[in-house]
Amino acid sequence: MVHAYTILAGISLALSTFAVPLSGTDALAPRTNEARHSKSPESSTCGSPQGGNSSGKGKTPGHTRTKAVYFISNTAQNSVVALRVNANGSLSDGSFTATGGAGMSGVDAKGVAAEPDALFSQGAVKVAGNTLVAVNPGSNSISMFTIDPADPTKLTMVGKPTDTLGEFPVSVTVSMKLKQACVANTGAKAGISCFSISATEGLKALDTSLRVFDIKQTTPPVGPLNTVSQTFFNADSTALYTTVKGDPTVNITGFLSVFPVTNGQVSTQDVRSSPNGTAVLFGSALIPHSSNIFVTDASFGSATLAISSKDTATVKAMTAIPGQKATCWATISDFTKTAFVTDVANNHLVEVNTTNGNIINPLALKNGNQGMIDLVSAGKFIYALSPGNATVPAAVTVFDVSGGSGSELSF
Fold first, then answer.
1. Which is nearest to 276 in space by CA: 303, 252, 243, 251?
2. Higher-confidence residue: 29 or 154?
3. For residue 132, which of 288, 267, 17 has the smallest C-alpha distance?
4. Does residue 65 register a pLDDT over 90?
5. Which of 80, 165, 276, 354 has its CA 20 to 30 A from that of 33?
6. d(CA 246, CA 274)
7. CA distance 103 to 233
């Protein structure tokens, strides 16, 4: 387990992979000690945010496959935090890069800042190729960066933060095929807006108005119920999907929105469906070699949805997770060919068969974290984020799935 360097809120994960010379960095290099199968850096006291400048220390001749994990600080002066992924899957040194925008937390029913899930969403950061895009919930903008091929912890902003046309952006997606990014807002102005991506000029608006979700929210939003969860392109970028939570307590139905992509442009009209038995659709993952998607539902667990030729969704498999409190985030491992979900209020990682919905491996953790939120899979490892609070530090837990599906996970 690797502790983050400050108490963070509303943070999401993404992964970038490169074949580049190995280089070292002095930025935020933590102390380490052994913890089972990975090194566990202890939290360092952080000064002003620093970039991941290469020091030349630890350089190795030749090429290796370098990776980094990214998330946002969601603080008043928002930053992207990057942690280097070592060859054994553990995490070390990193960087803070200012987004030029502001973070903000949603609120609970009493108007108090929501903890520990500040954004009620999945996908606040998205990486595609050498491009990274992050949301700024407090300034209604998104920021684009290029990732240094020689050091994936070194980010350079391209252009300036760009207005999202809505309020409280929480989830972003990128299509390199379309050279576009789309962002979901869930505040008083809720909906989707899209942007062209230029390596030299950054983000440029393709819309003059939102694709509106009339969920009658506020800014900041009251959640997590009745908020937009995640927006994402399908595998061939022929449709943009968005999950929107309902609120069963007041009979508001959640839905999956599908905007078709026609002639390289995201339509302004969507198709909405509320799959039978679902209520609080949250995080999602595309199922490889299939048009189906895997989704979490905070009211019971998870489901596999089949998407028809008419862009409507039906339940193909459903999983009620015992002891679940808020199953909200999902990833699919290319190595195990299975899904993994997390729960912000129950500190466990649950492996699920996406074909039949069977629970394969429920792993209860005893590492002191209160629960986990966003997560990402990469090769034989899964990285899951615990956001922390006033008493528990934020942390990223690394899980080794090299034993394959159903094997005992190590972390």
1. 303
2. 154
3. 17
4. no
5. 80
6. 10
7. 25
